[in-house]
Specification:
Layout: H1 14-21, E1 33-40, H2 44-55, E2 58-63, E3 72-79, E4 82-89, H3 95-103, E5 106-113, H4 117-126, E6 131-140, E7 143-151, E8 157-162, E9 175-176, E10 188-197, H5 203-214, E11 217-222, E12 233-240, E13 247-254, H6 261-269, E14 273-281, H7 284-293, H8 305-313, H9 320-326, E15 329-332, E16 337-342, E17 353-360
Parallel strand pairs: 1-4, 5-8, 10-13, 14-17
Antiparallel strand pairs: 1-5, 2-3, 2-9, 3-4, 6-7, 7-8, 10-14, 11-12, 12-13, 15-16, 16-17
Length: about 375
């Protein structure tokens, strides 16, 4: 099977193109979705408290010195189908500590669920991926999990997770983490997409990587004419696997009078990495109201945006008043519309942030709001 992407037919919608191009019997890397997102952080215990308090995650599992892990502490938190792993080194002078020292807190791994982690590793490394982890089997009384992994942009990796023969809580090496402190969830459902920032002139090489190495397709492209202001600009291409379960927009900076957010990210992160994780909800007004009350800060939107938004996007089911009060943006494509909002960076460095998104049919990414 050739993995070279065919130029998209602009008359087709995103959903139509994906459906037309997806051939499951020829998919050498069938992905079932995002298994978890792992963050390397300076203090995993405190980070877990933040995500529980501010975003409504629940305690799930733990690995650390008490479980026989002498190198790191790893807290697993979950909300619906959304799983984060927060990892910190308990000693200096190792890859986890070095990653945090260089980048600050950030995403290390976007883990992807597969039926066969060994095949995923063989197929991707055969096509040119640099190995991060050879296929490794973890076992306990609940069964087995097979892990493998490859490198992608910057210090970010993809871990392939095969857990069909496992009935435990998370994976071998972890114990149940029970806590008396369990704030209510906020309606976050699953990872909608993860966005990567790459360096100058590096977007197309990484697009080719996802095409050739992982069999993804470029389903949307935005250039600096689409995404620009008087002062700042960026370019972006959205990569999707065959079934559309995993999507990775890739941004690179473009020339402007001032630094774009992508440039600023690259400067402070000291390299390429995950800019933001977009999380789905089925009721963005309730979710964002709850998140704001818990202290999560979002970007402010000028009130004038809402004066003409319905002229641009047409009818929506929601009342405009709470959208204006909360700062929720609206955009439309051929399939429907979406509602989205972006948090301020959640670290001291202006790097990682989150997007909350509710799709009302739309398959795109809010081009009109960039």
């Amino acid at each position: 099977m050739s993995t070279t992407a065919v130029a998209p037919n602009k008359k087709q919608s995103v959903a139509e193109r994906l459906k037309a191009e997806h051939q499951p019997e020829q998919d050498f890397l069938p992905l079932k979705g995002t298994d978890y997102v792992e963050f390397y952080v300076g203090n995993a215990k405190q980070a877990a408290h933040f995500y529980k308090t501010a975003m409504g995650f629940q305690s799930l599992a733990y690995s650390g010195p008490e479980t026989g892990n002498k190198e790191s502490a790893r807290y697993v938190i979950r909300q619906n189908k959304l799983t984060f792993v927060l990892t910190t080194s308990i000693r200096p002078g190792n890859p986890i500590a070095d990653h945090v020292a260089r980048h600050g807190d950030g995403v290390k791994s976007i883990a992807l669920t597969v039926d066969d982690a060994t095949s995923a590793w063989k197929e991707t490394t055969k096509r040119g991926a640099k190995s991060f982890m050879e296929p490794t089997t973890l076992k306990d009384e609940h069964g087995k999990v097979v892990l493998s992994g490859i490198h992608t942009y910057g210090d970010t990796v993809h871990v392939f997770v095969e857990r069909g023969d496992y009935n435990g809580l998370f994976m071998p090496g972890f114990e149940k983490w029970e806590s008396n402190y369990n704030p209510a969830p906020t309606g976050l459902l699953y990872v909608d997409h993860c966005v990567g920032n790459v360096g100058w002139n590096q977007m197309n090489p990484w697009v080719k990587f996802y095409e050739d190495v992982m069999g993804f397709r470029n389903i949307l492209s935005f250039d600096d004419k689409d995404i620009s202001t008087e002062y700042s600009a960026l370019m972006s291409k959205v990569m999707s696997n065959g079934n559309g379960f995993v999507k990775f927009p890739i941004n690179e900076p473009a020339e402007g009078k001032k630094k774009s957010q992508v440039e600023e990210y690259l400067d402070f992160y000291l390299g390429e990495g995950v800019q933001h994780v977009a999380i789905a909800t089925s009721n963005i007004i309730e979710t964002v109201t709850d998140l704001q009350q818990r202290g999560l800060e979002f970007l402010k939107i000028p009130g004038t945006y809402y004066d003409t938004v319905l002229d641009r996007v047409g009818h929506i089911d929601e009342d405009l008043k709470p959208l204006r009060e909360l700062g929720i943006l609206v955009d439309r494509d051929d399939e429907g519309y979406l509602l989205q909002i972006f948090s301020k960076p959640v670290e001291d460095r202006p790097t990682l942030f989150f997007e909350i998104i509710q799709r009302k049919g739309a398959k795109s990414f809010g081009k009109g709001n960039f």
